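Lab channel / #folding
Pinned by the channel admin:
"Please post every new chain as: sequence first, then the structure tokens as a reply. Keep commentary short and put observations after the output so the thread stays searchable."

First post following the new format, from NK:
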Amino acid sequence: MFEKFFADHSFDFETRSLFGDIHYGAGDIGEMLTAVANIEDGNATSWVKEWRELAERIQQIGQTSLAAGHKVSARNAYLRAVYYAASFVFVAATENPAPQLEALFASHRECFDQHVSLLDPPAIPIAVPYEDTELRGYLFVPAADGVARPTVILNNGSDAAFTFLWPGLGQPGLDRGYNTVIFDGPGQQSMLFQRNIPFRPDWEHVITPLVDFLSDRAEVDASKIVLYGTSQAGYWVPERRRSSIASRRSSPTRVSSTSLPAGRRTSLPRWSRCWKPRTKKASPRA
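Reply from TO:
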């Protein structure tokens, strides 16, 4: 009978999730099992310490490899470091004061920037105009040949790292000839940690400017854009919102939407109204 890694449900869930992308290169089972063995069950400080130390050690391997001209080894090491760092940032967000969290988050994103800069072709950083700020993310293309391709927008759930979407969804999309896009929306990681911008339930106001932005790019076939939502984003991109997330143009871009879990709910849960209250008095939780 298979035994749990941890009695703590959150720790066990996060650990299983991390092991799920090993076959995409987002981790080494020996490194990960060693870290897991050293974590005190249910102790968030211990969790952050072990994953942070591992991430920093693997990041150093990436830096050494890159300095020696070994780009493939560096790229692979940075991806592992990204995944390990994302795991402690997620827990640290509930345990650490803002200054420490900002430093942890910056280290995590630094590893990802290094990894995607070593792809062939490198990822394209994007900054999408959104209200009085920007939605930041990356556009990945299979080849730098100027061809307009179908594009999959990968919409992360809750406040987890969008870097989790890259190994198991982003790279496989590229391998099959699609462009892929990852980004932080309101309430997600960089928007929350660095700019204190909360969630909002009317997610069409987030996706519309992103679709507009992508539709103007030469790499994107504006008639073939798919929005894929995972986890909490399964509430944000249901099929019935298709018309709401189309581009703001006289000839609107057709956007297909796919969500997980598909078809299980047709509206946002009532507690989502607490993310961005419409009045001075916050809505009560359901």
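NK: The domain at 124-275 is CATH 3.40.50.1820 (Rossmann fold).
TO: also worth noting, The radius of gyration is 19 Å.
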